[in-house]
Design goal:
alpha/beta, seven-stranded mixed β-sheet, three-stranded antiparallel β-sheet, 12 strands, binds pyridoxal-5'-phosphate
Length: 372
């Protein structure tokens, strides 16, 4: 399995079952005490002043852009190598997504490409901390300050990772800029048993606005001060998340152990490049993604499937070549790094329950492909 949620659940079953039962007994299904408790515990864990829970990561991005007052026609710069949700909300709000290329080693947005894409209409930058490690936040914030832009961190894949500043201080990803977003989709590093998400900020006024927006723009019940949405975290999901939050660092450690096993197994295989660790971030390995060379990546995926090893392609098509996002501003060849990676990456199973036997089978199967 790419992600083994069943075995993980078995490990924590008594605690989870009791917590879900408690919510059902209380019937406080929406915005109950479980949501408040999880919110506070996550604030403490992240070292951030405000966590605003919402319904999913896509909404987290959307409400952040609404709360920052972005208006139709404003340009928002983001990466061409990400999950579609990042650009989707920009387009849905009538903003203009401006895509830029990534750095080949980290797969994260290239700060120099950001600066080249800035125009008088640019209002925000959305870096994505892809696959579990931080984008180059110091460089991005420097550009944002120079041009007076908002930075919205898409932290859906990197919750728990630390960004390490040049002076050695650390901050959790998602809490470095004015606002950060995360997803609690089941397969995420901190995943619930349905959909969930949250926004993080240290700005009191923005937090107040975000809390209103996620609840129909309401401060006092049935008095609506702004246009909002219905985007809340269910109490049952919050209860599950609170239990898993206590184990988040341990889970990251297990993911790192699996990654180290993969690294070692593939170190002498010339057709594979193992993930490069960015020296300004810890890695929480949402995905373990190899870059292949000199082989047909799809053949490797087929071979692994035939051996019962699931392997996924994140992502096969860059945003600028997605049918829904085709735009005369972009054509094939515009983002060479992204396009090259879309053709050559492959992600191996990565979760908290990988044992040595499974890791051995997966790595042997990968290496067998090259011996054929
Ligand atoms: C980078 C990125 N952004 C946004 C999202 C959207 O999160 P959700 O599925 O909770 O809406 C995801 C995950 O699905 C993601 O990986």
């Amino acid at each position: 399995m790419m992600v083994d949620l069943k075995s993980q659940y078995e490990e924590i079953k008594p605690e989870i079952d009791a917590a879900i039962r408690e919510v059902i007994d209380s019937t406080a299904f929406i915005n109950g005490p479980a949501v408040n408790k999880f919110q506070q515990n996550l604030e403490t864990y992240l070292g951030v002043k405000h966590v605003i829970p919402c319904a999913n990561g896509t909404d987290a991005l959307q409400v952040s852009m609404m709360a920052l007052g972005l208006k139709p026609g404003d340009e928002v710069i983001t990466t061409s190598f990400t999950f579609i949700a990042t650009a989707e909300v920009i387009a849905l709000l009538g903003l203009t997504p401006v895509l830029v290329d990534i750095e080949p080693n980290t797969f994260n947005i290239d700060p120099q490409a950001i600066e080249r894409a800035i125009t008088p209409k640019t209002k925000a930058i959305v870096p994505v901390h892809l696959f579990g490690q931080s984008a180059d936040m110091e460089a991005i914030i420097k550009i944002a300050e120079k041009y007076n832009l908002h930075v919205i961190e898409d932290n859906c894949q990197a919750i728990g990772a630390d960004y390490i500043f040049t002076d050695g201080t650390k901050k959790k990803t998602g809490t470095i800029s004015i606002v950060g977003c995360t997803s609690f989709f089941p397969s995420k590093n901190l995943g619930c048993y349905g959909d969930g998400g949250a926004v993080f900020t240290n700005d009191d006024a923005l937090a107040t606005k975000l809390r209103q927006i996620v609840n129909h723009g309401m401060t006092v019940r049935y008095y609506h001060d702004m246009i909002g949405v219905n985007s809340r975290l269910d109490s049952i999901q919050a209860a599950v998340l609170d239990i898993k939050l206590k184990r988040l660092d341990e889970y990251a450690q297990k993911r790192n152990q699996a990654a180290a096993y993969y690294d070692k197994a593939f170190e002498n295989e010339p057709h594979l490049k193992t993930p490069v660790r960015f020296n300004k971030s810890t890695h929480v390995f949402h995905q373990y993604t190899l870059v292949t060379n000199g082989i047909d990546r799809n053949k490797l995926q087929e071979f692994l499937t035939s051996k019962g090893v699931p392997a996924m392609i994140y992502y096969p098509v860059p945003l600028h070549l997605q049918k829904a996002y085709l735009d005369p501003r972009y054509k094939e060849g515009d983002f060479p790094v992204t396009e090259m990676l879309c053709k050559t990456v492959i992600s191996l199973p990565m979760h908290t329950e990988l044992d040595e036997e499974q890791l051995n089978y997966i790595t042997s199967s990968v290496l067998e492909f090259f011996k054929q």
